[in-house]
Amino acid sequence: MGSVSLKIGDGTTRFKRASLCSSAVNILMLFSVITTNLFALFAFTYSPEQHLNQYPRKSISLISEQVSLILKEVDSSQRKPAQMEKELLGYDSLDLSRPNLARELKLFLEHNQLPLGKDSRTGITEMVASVGHSCGKSADLLSQYMSYKVSGPCSDDWSLGQKLILRGCEPLPRRRCFAKNIPKVGLSPFPVSLWKPVGNKSVTWSGLGCKTFECLKGKKLSRDCVGCFDLVSGYEAQKYVKARGKNDFLIDDVLAMGNGGIRIGFDIGGGSGTFAARMAERNVTVVTNTLNIDAPFSEFIAARGLFPLFLSLDHRFPFYDNVFDLVHASGGLDMGGKPERLEFLMFDIDRILRAGGLFWLDNFYCANDEKKWFLTRLIEKFGYKKLKWVVGEKIDSGKSEAYLSVVLQKPVRV
Predict the structure, then answer these.
(1) What secondary structure does DSSP assign to 6-58, as a single string?
(2) What is the span of the domain harbouring residue 167?
(3) Domain total for the chain?
(4) Where does the chain cross the membrane (predicted)?
């Protein structure tokens, strides 16, 4: 058997030191546990009851406010498409709650829900009556225009309607009354009607200064209408077939430029309809745009057996794209104001003119070099082929004035 030797000296000392350290650590850990539990007990038992209830209430209030804001945003976003639709379709152009607004106007403009709900093709939910956006600025005149007895005679107020149109209230609302009847005595058969003088009883003279065509014959109604109601002894009977200057193009020469492809045309500011009459003699149908400014232009043109279109130049032309073989315009093309107005009009002319069709600008008055320069640049912008281009001068009241006459051909655009 072996023997075991124990060295008590140094080992006993080390044991004593370790025992002292362990005791200190144990005491510290015990103190930490007791302190932590005391703090926990303090947190759950010492806080007053009012504080325990106050903080949850504040949190719930804040959450409720946030939910309310979110719901408002959702509701607003849902209303925006409907509001945009109303603005685009012109629902709110007139405030129907205004006092003294004619009942007929309210009935015409009220919203009509589609019976089957939203239309899948157009996206609209209501049928809207067509009325000019600027009518709201002339609500008093418009209400006067719409004040009548239903199924009774309309007031003799065509001049009031035209005043609204010239103020931008176009189109006018429809009415449920009967327009004044004009017997139209002495109308001649076509084509005799083209050059037969129109009788005074064939038109209405209300709202006009002159009451007879004899009165109108000696008047200068515009640069393009000087004696234009005299179909017998004045220059009107020679217009487009006999030139007075280099700016006056002959109608047969222009038709030859179309290589026989001119069948239908549109005349802008056509005066008494002589351009359409000359075209009718050559089996070309022409629609004449006109207004009754100081004279019964529309009725006079119709009495000649031609087609008048009562429309201002601020209105988009009511024709489909690329339908006319020829567009003719003269002084009526002058929009005045900013050059952009003329540019808008030129783009609409280009829209209704077919590729290869002719645009005839006839004796356009160039008030100054700046206007002539702008019009020239504008025409070049469209890339039309210049078939004829003449800048000439005329003497008016002893003053020399510049005029531009051109025949252009619309290009084929890909």
Answers:
(1) --HHHHHHHHHHHHHHHHHHHHHHHHHHHHHHHHHHHHHHTS-HHHHHHHHHH
(2) 71-181
(3) 2
(4) 24-46
